[in-house]
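Hi L.,

You mentioned the student needs an example of a multi-chain input paired with its predicted structure. This one should do, with 924 residues in total across all chains.
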Amino acid sequence: MRYIPNTSADQREMLASIGVSSIEELFADIPESVRNRFQPLNLPARSEMEVASVVSEMADRNKPTDAICFLGGGIYDHYVPSVVGNLLSRSEFVTAYTPYQPEISQGTLTAMFEFQTYVCELTGMDIANASMYDGATAMAEAVLMAERTRKRGAVAVPRSLFSHVRRALDTYCWATDIEIHEIGYLPDGTVDLELLPEQLSAVVIQTPNAFGVIESLEGVKDRIGDALLIVSCHPLSLALLQPPGAYGADIVVAEGQSLGLAMGYGGPLLGLFAARQEHLRQMPGRIAGRTVDVDGKTGYAMAAQTREQHIRRHRATSNICTNSALCALASTIYLSSAGSAGLKQLAALNLEKAHYLADGITAIEGYELAFTGDFFNEFIVNVPGNAAVIHDALVQAGFAVEEPQALQSLGLDNALRFAVTERRTKDELDRLIEVLGGSR
Amino acid sequence: MSTIFDCRCSEKVGGLFPEIDVPAKGAERLIDPKHLRKQPLRIPDVSEPQVTRHYTKLSKLNFGVDDGFYPLGSCTMKYNPKLNEAMASLPGFAGLHPRSDEGRSQGALQLMFELTGFLRGIAGMADVSLQPVAGAHGELAGMFLFKKYFEMRGEDNRKRILLPDTAHGTNPASAAYAGFSVTEVASDETGMIDLEALDQVLDDTVAGIMLTVPNTLGIFETNILQVTEKVHAAGGLCYFDGANLNSYLGKTRPGDMGADVFHYNLHKTMSTPHGGGGPGAGPIAVSESLAAYLPVPRVRFEDGRYALDWDCPNSIGSVHSFYGNFLVAVRAFAYILQLGDEGLREVSKNAVLNANYLQERLKKTFSLPYDGLCKHEFVVSGKGLADGISTLDIAKRLIDYGVHPPTIYFPLTVKEAIMIEPTETESKETLDRFAEILETVAREAKEDPQLLHDAPTQAPVRRLDQTYAAKNPVLSYPFEEQPQ
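Structure written out for the whole complex:
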């Protein structure tokens, strides 16, 4: 075994020094009735070269690069600059554990501090943690945090929340006995806050929402009483849009995949989690803080460690331990290499190209935007005829577009969702428009 | 440490993305100007050489498994094979959108399906979900399954989870987070669960027990079968924390010991990297009676095609955006394929051999609260080594000798605990060298204790004030301090 350095001579010497004659004796404490019950998986040992070949064949059976990607709904096909992957592969980052020994973890801790700063800057919030698993669990944790703070046993959640976020939220709320009141939407696709129930721990808003529509957060905080305002957003849009913090959001969460992560069939992802200062004590997850060493030199350490489960255990604010540290580092390097100028350019590219495509599609007879609200990088189109048939035609023509039945949980029966990133060229957009025009 | 915000901004950046190739209309025309950002975005514009130097410098302030011995107990810091990384970055996997049609995702689904089969076999259990993305996330999902199980049976009286005092760190928080109350069960003088104490707390309000096998002292609970039998007899379920799977891989299986839910830490046992605190993966295995409640979607293989099955009416729902940390699963899959059955057994054999070898040697210098066979890890105490010397001092001094300190002050049942897990990927030579270092530090503790109090002196920073960060929280870059 290439990964085990002990030689048989080493093993013999070690056994002698322990005072046993075989390795088997070291397992004598396992009850005999179960000790050797392992049933082989019928797996031969393989060389690295053979494994590389088997796994590469599986990867080749997926055909992501053959299709021009218009898939979205929270995960987007963005360009990742070379510098991100290169720096991220440094094994000092990759093979380190959680920074429990800060003196030899300053790399991870400084990056956590930078990441938190970036999240605060993008969202306009006071404090941010060092990451959650993904956008969906970040949302679930935000709702649980609001419930710990307000204890009303109920939250309001818009119909226009991404379905994958809603699914996870449903599970967490079922398990913790939090009631979900679903709130509907107006004809323009924005959330309808008219019939908001009273006595809520939180009101959730997603912007841009699952329809791609940008919500107006102005005045929302005043309308929801003392329920916490939780906003889920698309981080890249925040280079262009006024951040939720400017509207008094209490907690802001997001899926950070757009910030330099591979799509990776949906994992690992990156949960962003930010809050207002007053909520620090209830915030889940790790936070890095600036401190000093005994010589007064600046360094970083995990702050507010009393919240960590190994100290407060069953009274911890969350059970989260391993998070998405390396993904947070990827996004930190990504943001550092793009800079504010690069980010603004990127947001503009996404915005303009999405609108170019929408204009082109809606110029075709029978196609219209499902909602009139402003959008950023994705939008929903009501189609003439059968959406499933049109979807098939697009797939046949080499485009990856979400299956229309996936939108049914949002209440859309015959529609398609298109997401556009900087990677889509004018030529690709024109071809999509052409195929749609021809498939009528 | 300087941050990226301390770098001098360049005048000319950009060039990452192309100029726009569609007629630009301008944000003000496409979006109601009231939505547009008014506050500045303080993200520095720094040239690529500066970015590269900055993060390369940061990396050098870190210590990873590739830098040296990392005997962090309960964390299984084994070597992370480079093949895994190469496999996870294949474009067919890394570039795959989670909403891709099944026809374009057959390879990914096949990998998930086959890995599920391997993991089922390794645990000896009925079914597996790859969805949880960390050990504690697997625990939480497991607690959700407990809740569902009793809900379906109409036993809403079962609100308590029993936890041995040697339980794994996140267990109490996971149980509490899923709405259970926690009752601690004491261990006896041998470090194992006290069966009489267990009898006293078992009744029809108990939903189940969370067991760590071997426990956090590195001791295999020899009466594990009696424990699970008693809990089952009382109508409860048994959760097995899989953090310590490395000690019995290919040898015995939680399914044979009475586990109803078991979680794997792919980032421990299956060699995927920890990344400075994630991402990991925490798949869960279940017994037959809980299989119907596993998270959706499930991966099925029917009529020669792999498919995602969302139609599981009794499922707890989802605990993650999509299918878990797929790229971590790819790494674990490559690892298991390379090991094969024989390799899996070699892992636990050598992990246990290394731990016992080191324990035998170190017990001559440090007090060993529970003397006997250990599995993949063991716990010694820094107590009584020398007056005024704490385990923290010992740990910090180890840094000066170029090894990562073991886990300290855990488990809570041992005063001044030092929890050591060497893993199978370390050589006898490394273990001998580590033992020598610890013996030297023990000598220094008696002869020149100031060396320990002052440690570390060879790290990028000296001992950090961790309470300062709590008392004077500076949790993001203070731009107002930036020189203009």
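You could point out the following to them. Chain B touches chain A through 203 residues (CB under 8 Å). The longest strand of chain B covers residues 206-212.

Best wishes,
N.
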